[in-house]
Amino acid sequence: MNTALRRTTLVIAATLAAGMSMTACAAQTPAASGSSTDKEGGTLVYLDAELSSNTQLQSSGTWQDSAYVTNITDRLLDRDPETGEIGPYIADTWKVSDDGLVYEFHITGGVTYSDGTPLDAANVARNLEWQANGDPDGGIPANNWFPAVSEITHDDDAQTVTVTLEEPYAPFLNVLSFWRTSLVADATIEASLEAQSQLTGIIGSGPFVVESEKYGEEIVLAARDDYDWAPGSADHEGRAYLDEIVIIPVTEDSVRLGSLRSGEADVIRYIQPSEEAGLEAAGITVLGVQGAGNVNAWQLHQSAPFLDDVRVRQALQHGIDRQQILDDLYTDNWQIATSIVTPTTFGYVDLSDEFAYDPDESAALLDEAGWTERDADGFRTKDGERLSILTYVDVFDSTAKPLFQLIQWQLEQIGVELVIKETDYANYSATLEDPAIGARRNGWPEADAWVRQNVNYHSQNTNGFRLAEPDTELDALYEAQADATSDEERAQVVGEIQRHVIEQAYALPILDDTQVFGLQPYVHDFSTTYEARPTFYDTWTENK
Q: Where is the Solute-binding protein family domain (predicted)?
């Protein structure tokens, strides 16, 4: 099927997906038309499961938008997806003062943005100032991952940028490798919030450029012919192999799957575990990628009824049989969580024994907490109230509904009622502001898990556990990991964070977060970032 016809078919399918699903096509992958081992050329059709919502760097956060931004921009530093090591990118060298306050970056020469303007020391300095301070007049927030900056200077002759921090900030190099700190042209920095919130408003220096965007229907990325500054972790240099990437949001699982089976799509994201074996039998490559960062966990809100009691939270911790969840619902592409972060995350400590499935321990904890009576339905009660917890199915996780339902059944066995409700993508975030909601599914593969946790869980930031009073010990630990001046010191602190969160049962680790992709057999060298976001720079297709 030619590219134009495929695109037309898929746009129609995406439009219809909200109201009806296509009949799944035969489980058969068509032979590649015009197959070629020449890597250069061709169009790749990529179906994402979600709509683009906001690409403004400091305020965006959805998975799909971060993936698109990653492919059209570059970062100051590179994070090797295999090793996690920081390496050169737009900064070809750098040095850090012994006190951890002064960072000097040398900017590689000859780099330009897609609008032709230079990516030089002056532009990098402007980007860093914009990230650190935002643009209050334009409604652009500061990047809450950024440290407090004392001064940023640049030397045009030497092509260096010097950043002086107010205090040491251990994750700074990690943050500079992250998609949220992607470098953009002056024209983007000067643009309105509305313009920056659309992918066409992000002018980057990456291997692809936004050729067109039809909101909710299609994004087309075209290769930059003059691109020649890929990071060292890439497999080649120069122009990207693909001519074009056509990104189409298809929110209906059956439509995405049918399009892959029929050959209308080359790559899709989000595959239900129950579909993996059938796709592999049909010759489709199923790739599960576990990015470094925070695991798929349920954060518990202490503003909700009954969850301010640590014994109740600990009972929930031991009442979840994670191995049953993996065996019944998932595949070998997934694994159960063994801490609040994945094993490839800096400072990871295996704490699985501390929250192992133990319904007898759950029962003892609930008895101790006074939940000794049972109502007619078998749920525990105290003072005439049922031990009931409210949650909403996570709209960002395609496997969430059966996962929630199985946990609901498991908690019922220890006498706890889990009430599951649903809302749509557009209203999910606002709905979760309700203080009566007891549990929220979260999990973010990130450049630095501890920065994310500090932003989300420090009582002076988002206070995601909704503590009535600050946990001063946890706050101090989040601050100490950022101030650490050696890896050894920081590793010790983040180990203490993991133990404290598990001991207090602030969060219930469930699974290591996995992104599952389906690829046609004629698609080669598909890769992902350290955080498992797809990158297409090295990808090539036999179909031309």
A: 86-448
pLDDT for the residue numbered 168:
96
Percent of the chain whose pLDDT exceeds 70: 94
Closest C-alpha to 538, from 231, 114, 527, 288: 527
Arithmetic mean of pLDDT, 398-426: 95
Q: Which residues, including other chains, have CB under 8 Å from residue 316's CB and lie 6 or more apart? A: 300, 362, 389, 411, 416, 505, 508
3-state secondary structure of 329: helix
Are the C-beta atoms of residues 204 and 70 closer than 8 Å to each other?
no
Burial degree of 287 (CB within 10 A; 0-12, 13-18, 19+): middle
| Global confidence as pTM | 0.91
DSSP, collapsed to helix, strand or coil, labels residue 287 as strand
Amino acid symbol at 79: R
Q: Give the three-state DSSP class for 349.
A: coil
**Spatial distance between the Cα atoms of 93 and 39, rounded to a whole number of angstroms:** 31
CA–CA distance, 176 with 92 (Å, rounded to integer) = 13
CA distances 265 to 3, 189, 261, 268, Å, are: 10, 35, 8, 7
CB 516 within 8 A of CB 287: yes
pLDDT tens digits, 474-505:
999 999 999 998 999 999 999 999 999 999 99
